[in-house]
Amino acid sequence: MKILEAGLDGIKIFEPDVFGDSRGFFMETWQEQRYTAAGAIGHFVQDNVAFSKRGVLRGLHYQFPNPQAKLVYALYGEVFDVAVDIRKGSPTFGKWASVILSAENRRQVYIPPGFAHGYYVLSKRALVAYKCDDYYSSRAEHSIFWNDGDIGVQWPSQNPVVSEKDAKAPRLAQLDKSHLPE
User: Fold this and answer.
1) Are 150 and 175 in contact (CB under 8 A)?
2) CA quadruple 149, 155, 159, 163: dihedral, nearest 10
3) Catalytic: which of 35, 43, 61, 136?
4) Which one is catalytic: 62, 110, 119, 130?
């Protein structure tokens, strides 16, 4: 497995070993000892899959309390995946990192607790899977406005399809800092 740094402390990009032949391919999407040794800290308790069409932007989402680490990858299609550091006191607070995740490149991104996460669908359709190290809680779910100018994510489109909730999300500067992870 190849491990790449994403430019923000704790975020790792994994390129798993892929074993292919004329029949197709095989790859491990998670092996606790190997991934933990590579910096993906956490014991995953929940797997999620989301299907979206081209132009859909999901995010920027986070959970607090009970922030989640995530291991994210595309099973089908291609997405522009983003993580934003929202850890109080972090030297990279408000900074973002991105990676293209696709069924072709088979890359995975590990996002530790304390980051908001989102992605934009580049392909006609995309099926995105992610593992979480804490359970989803609707009471702990929060969003940050996807196009917050103070964060400055360079999204592939300025006219994405977003949910009503994401369209009305507050900017990072408007959030109560007591509701952000350490």
Assistant:
1) no
2) -80
3) 61
4) 130
Report how far residue 166's alpha carbon sits from residue 57's, in angstroms, rounded to the nearest whole number: 9
Catalytic, 76? Answer no
What gap in Å lies between CA 84 and CA 135, rounded to an integer? 20
* Selection from 5, 160, 166, 157 nearest residue 92 by Cα: 5
Peptide bond into 65 cis (omega under 30): yes
141 in Cβ contact with 67 (< 8 Å)? no
> pTM for the whole thing?
0.95
Give the tens place of pLDDT for each residue, 72-128. Answer: 999 999 999 999 999 999 999 999 999 999 999 999 999 999 999 999 999 999 999
d(CA 43, CA 132): 8
- pLDDT above 90 (res 179): no
Tokens of 179: 């509701």
Length of the chain equals: 182
